[in-house]
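RECORD TYPE: inverse folding
INPUT: structure tokens
STRUCTURE:
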């Protein structure tokens, strides 16, 4: 078949639909990067995903050799040679392609195959691992949210009742106390109130009642959160929105979703700090087909194409905190409860979605991935996702 997708063409990428063959269109709509490497290691073709991956336009990519794009001595170079020599396809998993130019996580699975129609040419497909890895990690977060559920239920009963007794007694004492002592009785009341507030926040975890769901426009939620933030804790921070207005509604609970994004925006503002003058929070929404989650113990695969991100240019999440980020009581703040992100993970999990974090200094992003509202009841309620 001579019209194979790998026939040398001047442009696969960045090309208008006009004149684009269906093979090119297919290649460009693939979520995975595909490049063709010529006999001297030069890049002869690249699809749109590859342009994004390397952050270089296709015409420019064609001026590079593969070895210029990957880390020095990368196994991908040997793989390409091996495939060229043997004429048989080879796969390699979990290869790190991070270079100083492309920082961040760049762990990929590599699929390398010869192009029989073009002797000496080899096609390389790169599949970013992070999506698969993210999902594994997220399922652990769901477990963490579950483990706090029983604790929350116990706390609510065992702490709130005695506390209200203590508070009542302090109020009684206050009536006959001297001014000095009144400071102490006030302290008891204030601290009791603080504990009740904390327990109240935890009670959300224990609440097993089904929540009301309705179609929610995520942009209305994000704008509401932005307004709240800008009139309070994020007054000094610039907000930048990048919304996809064609995004369909999600089936969710509006109040809970507000809580989710308020927690994320509050964390972003707190990371940026009260004195920063160049603080920025980006709110983005996008449609990303191809993100599918396999649920453990079930054959169902849920598609999570809706992506909502909160990004900030603060210092980033401390390295040692990352593996436990979504667990309850994980905090680096003197007055933080460490329940914000645990709550986010719980609510998004209940909605059948996942939340993930990628962080480096000045580029921290929390992404919420959600299913589409299809009108199919089971699928819309999370496809039997573990709660
Ligand atoms: N955008 C961010 N940038 C840097 N670190 C973050 C960010 N978001 C969260 N973190 C880190 O994760 C920790 C946990 O966040 P979480 O929201 O769960 O609790 P908290 O903010 O400390 O307390 P609370 O939300 O109860 O006020 C924070 O203490 C902070 O160290
Ligand atoms: Mg928080």
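DESIGNED SEQUENCE:
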């Amino acid at each position: 078949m001579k019209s194979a997708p790998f026939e040398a063409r001047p442009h696969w990428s960045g090309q208008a639909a006009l004149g684009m063959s269906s093979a090119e269109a297919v290649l460009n709509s693939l979520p995975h990067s595909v490049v063709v490497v010529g006999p001297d290691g030069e890049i002869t073709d690249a699809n749109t995903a590859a342009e994004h991956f390397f952050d270089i336009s296709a015409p420019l990519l064609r001026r590079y050799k593969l070895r210029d794009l990957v880390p020095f001595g990368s196994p991908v170079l040997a793989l390409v040679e091996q495939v060229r020599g043997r004429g048989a396809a080879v796969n390699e998993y979990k290869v790190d392609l991070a270079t100083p130019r492309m920082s961040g996580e760049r762990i990929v699975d590599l699929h390398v195959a010869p192009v029989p129609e073009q002797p000496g040419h080899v096609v390389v497909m790169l599949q970013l691992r992070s999506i698969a890895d993210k999902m594994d990690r997220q399922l652990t977060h769901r477990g963490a949210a579950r483990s706090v559920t029983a604790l929350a239920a116990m706390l609510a009963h065992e702490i709130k009742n005695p506390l209200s007794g203590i508070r009542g007694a302090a109020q009684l004492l206050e009536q006959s106390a001297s001014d000095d002592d009144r400071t102490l009785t006030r302290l008891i009341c204030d601290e009791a109130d603080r504990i009740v507030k904390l327990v109240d926040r935890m009670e959300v975890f224990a609440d097993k009642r089904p929540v009301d769901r309705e179609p929610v426009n995520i942009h209305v939620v994000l704008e509401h959160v932005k307004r709240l933030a800008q009139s309070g804790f994020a007054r000094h921070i610039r907000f930048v929105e990048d919304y996809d207005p064609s995004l369909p509604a999600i089936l969710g609970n509006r109040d809970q979703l507000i809580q989710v994004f308020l927690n994320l925006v509050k964390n972003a503002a707190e990371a940026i700090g009260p004195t920063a003058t160049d603080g920025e929070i980006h709110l983005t929404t996008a449609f990303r087909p191809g993100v599918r989650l396999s649920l453990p113990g079930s054959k169902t695969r849920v598609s999570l194409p809706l992506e909502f991100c909160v990004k900030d240019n603060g210092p980033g999440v401390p390295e040692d905190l990352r593996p436990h980020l979504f667990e309850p009581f994980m905090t680096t703040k003197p007055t933080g409860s460490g329940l914000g992100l645990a709550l986010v993970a719980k609510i998004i999990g209940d909605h059948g979605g996942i939340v993930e974090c990628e962080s480096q200094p000045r580029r921290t992003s929390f992404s919420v991935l959600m299913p589409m509202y299809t009108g199919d009841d089971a699928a819309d309620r999370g496809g039997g996702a573990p709660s």
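NOTES: The two ends are 50 Å apart (CA to CA).
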